[in-house]
Amino acid sequence: MPFRPEKAKKLKDTSQPEKKRATTSERGYGKIHKGMRDQLLATYPICQQCNNAFSTQAHHKRYGPDLTINDYLAVCNLCHYKLHKGEI
Ligand SMILES: [Zn+2]
Ligand SMILES: [Zn+2]
Questions:
Q1: Could you list the pLDDT tens digit for every one of the 88 residues in the chain?
Q2: Ligand nearest to the CA of 58
Q3: What spacing in Å lies between the alpha carbon of 17 and ligand 2's midpoint?
Q4: For residue 37, which of 51, 20, 52, 21 has the smallest C-alpha distance?
Q5: Torsion of CA 2, 34, 46, 67, to 10 degrees
Q6: Which ligand is nearest to the CA of 76?
């Protein structure tokens, strides 16, 4: 894929490893728009569940065709795991 400088300009912070993140869509998190996820994690860098770890994942609070950033929860790996196990 060709490098697109006009897209790169929109990224707030390029210090984070974008290449690693891209693979999450290949692991089954593809439902969420990548831009929305990046925006969520940039807005809530700390886990919204435990406030004690960096948020790394976007959890769906609800599903639908008209989702906004408010329909996701920025959480750490552990909290996301617990959320899906029903422990939270
Ligand atoms: Zn957490
Ligand atoms: Zn989830």
A1: 677 666 655 555 555 555 555 455 445 445 567 788 999 999 999 999 999 999 999 999 988 888 889 999 999 999 999 999 999 8
A2: 2
A3: 22
A4: 21
A5: 150
A6: 1
